[in-house]
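note to self: the first set is below, dont mix up w the second
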Amino acid sequence: MADHDIPFDEHLLVINSLSEETSTEAAQMILKMDPIPDGIFAANDPAAVSCIRELKRAGIKIPEQIAVGGFNNDPFSRVIEPDLTTINYPGHEMGEAAVSTLIRRLDKQEGASLNTMVLRHQLIVRESSLRKK
């Protein structure tokens, strides 16, 4: 947002448990906003899918009226209509790196300082964020 000079608006941030129920409630909150936002980014794919379902029930067209993106690249991100734009991240690789670091620390092979590790991620653009021209 900073790269594009878009100011942060705390009123547009919804924090919840990311359950189906709270994600549906978040979509209902979004529907009451005036104007409704251009897009939604959910912290996981199940929350994004719940939002899409609730928005569609209310007659909102995805992505024409609201673009939606998620995080995780869960298999069902390709089952919802429209297919969900998502971020694929290497969860398994992240777990292996964390366990390896923990084992080295426990074996005293690594000191108190921690290294920074960057794992590759990928934005997978699908229909839920593609505005039709």
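second set (the one i keep forgetting abt)
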Amino acid sequence: MTEMNLYISGELNTRFALCYDFRRCPCGIGNDTCPCRSDTIELTAPLTFDFDFRAYHYSIALFPGLPIDGASVPRGMWASIGHPFDSGLLLFAVLHDYLYAAELLPRSTADAIFVNMLRHTRGRWCRFKIALALKLAGGLVWAGHTPEGVAYARECVDCEITPCFR
């Protein structure tokens, strides 16, 4: 795997709407019929990633506006990979969700960047399982994009890619 120097500016500031009980629910209902129940988060402030990967320098700014489902980990895999909103996955999953939604890079590149970034928080076996899951199921997500959705997502991402000269 390629070594990656990663610089992140900004914090992962999010609005998190999971209503499991009335104490956490904005509307006070707090059960499965709650109108504000959602298993997604949204950025509330910009987040910037700067990194070198495969002979290119990427500078990617993410702006609020896209719902994020975290790392799309099936419930049966939570014990071995982690919860979808696990802090070791979430930061990189946010970038991956934005790259997928905006289709600014080929799917395989977005997946490779995500798996490579996980070197900071996950072991080799866990990264292998995540890479396999992306290869098997990522195409379904990618194929479900609409031109309108991609256009909207591109308004939420600023991506600059330049060659690295070493």
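remember for set 2: The first helix runs from residue 87 to 102.
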